[in-house]
UniProtKB/TrEMBL annotation:
Pfam families, sorted: DUF4440 (PF14534)
Organism superkingdom: Bacteria
The species this protein was found in: Tritonibacter scottomollicae
Domain DUF4440, residue spans: 15-115
Protein name, as recorded: Nuclear transport factor 2 family protein
Amino acid sequence: MVALQDPDVLRQELSACERAVWDALVRGDADADAALLCHSFLGVYSSGFADRADHRAQLHHGPTVEAYDLTELQARALGAGHGLLSYRASFQRTGRQSPEVMFVSSIWQRRGAGWINIFSQDTPALPETRDGIQRASSEPTPN
């Protein structure tokens, strides 16, 4: 039986890989972005499904993100050679006035001495109310 990777080491390694993807978005570096994604990459976004070429194409006109912050990082081993990184991303898109927040889950596969992203899903965060609690639109807001 193959031992699973230490959770703290896994979180550190996958966090560095995930930040490399975000850094490519900040620099507008399509080649660096594509190098981090598996040829069969699948992204699931509010706009639908995306493959590696779609993810790379978003950088055709340059950077798409001005700044970002990744918090609440959690890693889980999904068996030998695979890991899941989930986190909260706060970011500012290029040319937009308001920052955005979403929750992301990415699955990474060990390749040689490194990792490659095989799947990612983004979930937009609910807006915060005046009491600082996030609620679905159907939930009542306290008076």
